[in-house]
Amino acid sequence: MIILASGSPxxxxxxxxxxxxxxxxxxxxxxxxxAENPTALAIKNAxxxxxxxxxxxxxxxxxxxxxxVVLNGEIFGKPHGERGAxxxxxxxxxxxxxxxxxxAICKGGKTYTAAEITEVFFGEMTDEExxxxxxxxxxxxxxxSYALQGGAAKFIxxxxxxxxxxxxxxxxxxxxxxxxxxxxxxxxA
Length: 189
Hints:
Blueprint lengths: L1 E3 L4 H7 L7 E2 L13 H17 L6 E11 L2 E3 L4 H12 L3 E12 L2 E13 L4 H9 L20 E5 L2 H5 L3 H10 L9
Parallel strand pairs: 1-2, 1-3
Antiparallel strand pairs: 3-4, 3-5, 5-6, 6-7
Helix pairs in contact: 3-4
C-alpha cells in the first residue's frame, strides 16, 4: 500500500496523476523551521513526515513532502495571518524566487530522498492587488502565501521548472525517485 503523509488536497490531487490507489495519513510531527540550506530543510521536513507515519506502516511505502519558498536566502513557510501573507507577497512582488520541495520515501525500513527546485517570477503587484488577494483567504495556508493553481496565477510572469513542484508535489522527481528504488507508482497511461 502507498501512503501519502500529507493532508494537503493539492498533493492528493497531484498524486492521483501517478497512483490509482493510495491512503492518506496526516503527520502532525513538529517541523524544523530554519536552516542554513533551504534544500536540506525541505528534505529534512519531508523525511520527518514520512518516517513518523512509516512507524505505523512498516510494510508499506510512505511518501512525505515539504514545500518552501526561498527569496534571496530567506525561507518563507506559511504566513502568520493576513499581515504575514501581505508582507510575504510584498517581498515577492517583481522578483524571482525559488520553490523547493523535499521528498522522502520510506520503504522497508529505509528512507530515500530527493528535492526539486523551480524558479518562479512574479510581476509587480500593487498593495491593493495584494490586499484583495489576501482577503480571499487563499494565501493563509500556503508556503510563500500564494497558490499557483489559484488566484496568484495572474501575478506569475513565468516559471522555470516543474509546475507541479510549485503546487506542492513534483511528479516527475517523485516518479524517478520511486523508480530508482524499485517502486512502480502505478503510472496511468
